[in-house]
Amino acid sequence: MTSAPTTTATRTATVRRVRPEDAARMRALRLEMLADAPLAFLETVAEAAARPHADYAARVAAVAHGTATAQFVADPGGRFVGHAGGTVAPEEPGLTVIYAVYLTPPWRGSGLLAELVDAVADWSRACGRPELMLEVVVGNDRAYRAYQRLGFVDTGVRVPHPKIPTLRELQMRRPA
Fold first, then answer.
1. Model confidence pTM above 0.85
2. How confident is the prediction along the chain (176 residues), in pLDDT tens digits per residue?
3. Which among 72, 127, 132, 154 has the fewest CB atoms less than 10 Å away?
4. Which of the four CATH numbers 3.20.20.100, 3.40.47.40, 3.90.1010.10, 3.40.630.30 does domain 6-175 have?
């Protein structure tokens, strides 16, 4: 799945599924994600930086194909500028959980968020899962509003943050 390129001013990026050869660029984006938005992801920059390249290569290879988990990137031809993943929810076979959504600050507001979510949605539907769900840290109003604009609805469900017990996350859903 590859989308038509998004053009912002003179910049363009294509949204596509990761490929095994993307490991180094995925590692660079992952470190940026963790440094920029540490509450949004489930590991620290130090943990991610300590992982050897072989671990990144294995992770990327595992999500480059198949129906259980997939990752999509926004690729302008150099460093990746965006990411969104999707994974099956074993307790709800018709549901894909979107995870690790990120856009580098210069690309926010460019339309790439919608393209990344649409790529996950297309993959989810192709896998027979007609619904999407994601979680947002309560108080992250920018992300909350962005997901609302993409058709996600707050379900009212609140869950503890998996790493920081003093934080809560809210669940949002929409059709794939």
1. yes
2. 555 555 445 578 999 999 999 999 999 999 999 999 887 787 888 888 999 999 999 999 999 999 999 999 999 998 999 999 999 998 999 999 999 999 999 999 999 999 999 999 999 999 999 999 999 999 999 999 999 999 999 999 999 988 888 899 999 999 99
3. 154
4. 3.40.630.30
